[in-house]
Fold:
Amino acid sequence: MLKARVIPCLDVKDGRVVKGVNFVDLVDAGDPVEAAKAYDAAGADELCFLDITASHEGRDTIYDVVSRTAEACFMPVTVGGGVRAVEDIRKLLIAGADKVSINTAAVKNPDFIREAAEKFGSQCIVVSIDAKQVNAPGDPDKFEIFTHGGRTPTGIDAVEFAKKAVALGAGELLVTSMDRDGTKSGYNIALTRAIADAVPVPVIASGGVGNLTHMVEGIRDGHATAVLAASIFHFGEYTIHEAKAHMQDAGIAMRMDDTI
Amino acid sequence: MSVAIVDYGAGNLHSAAKAFERAARDHAKTPDVFVTSDADRVAKADRIVLPGVGAYADCKRGLAAVDGMIEVLNEQVGKNAKPFLGICVGMQLMASRGLEFETIEGLDWIAGDVTAMVPSEPELKIPHMGWNTIQVRDSGHAVLKGLATGDDGLHAYFVHSYHFATAREQDRLATFDYAGTFTAIVAKDNMIGTQFHPEKSQRLGLGLISNFLDWAP
Structure:
């Protein structure tokens, strides 16, 4: 039976982790590879690096991070942030990424999704959708795509864009509710479900996790097949194992293998 | 002992190579693992690995575009019976035909077609992406030695929308369940092929790779 996935996400800037990773036994908590190894050993089902490096010169650092991670971790790795061209994807895949997530570039130019999927296969193209709920309370749900870290509205309907992204070749969607991100009040379940029910491909729920029940809700009520979280793991509030055990207790089939 | 990982432009060879290097490092025979697009080097290797991600037709064309590679594979794997491991689309290429987007001939080592997966529950997502358990036929196989399989066993990492429907049940070593029974591993003589990614499957995957290095078909 296919299991739901728990995916820790590390923000990386100039080759260093920016939001603290608070584990014992980490020699260098700022090294994304050390953090990746810890998550690998802890039973994470996948790993996500979000490269938030602003400078052009700093961008090459992510290739080194991915390459060193692939030497040590034998699980799937997705890399996102600043992916704008086919050449960016090629370099990340060669470095050892399994999947690449495209965000702003896909919104600006949806044909980039098609180009990427045709070149590298849908299985490695994740389209990342950052959306906010924009309807007035009591009105029918309406979700709009925002870019640039949630600052720039686009006027694009998130569910319609999700369908289009899949039609163009996206193999998976990472759906982040920008109005929940950082609030710890839980995923926006209405958003997650609206998109998950509208597309045939897997959806990863993201943005707003504050406790383990939120992860259960993402799968059970949001119809996601994977849940992504950052701070609750990085700051040691919960371990990966605790998250998976909690989800399993709630009736969700989880992979509980001992790791290497 | 040497292990050639065939490079024909089909995606991510880095992680396959790293997983083999890791398994090789822990291995008594410390095999020499290399990635190559040189048919002569593949011909001289003791074991051959064919990875692959992406679309079937692209992979087949990519393989055919490497000078002499298909001939060497047919000779070394078919005639000289060297141990062979196909991974994902590399496994699917062992089939007679692929029916993804267009019908295209495979290497035709194991009879059957690569066709779209159609789970009986329409709400299930395609691609089949993530960790699943595998069910192995009773006779087992040397490449799975010491590895727990079945519903309570270890998990394998899959990401694919098509699967290898073998013509003969005996060529199918393991299956997985996704509202339907689909091929997880094919095995025939000196050939083995996994739909999942052993290089991404932690204990099950590294164990399988290690067993493959020991395997004497």
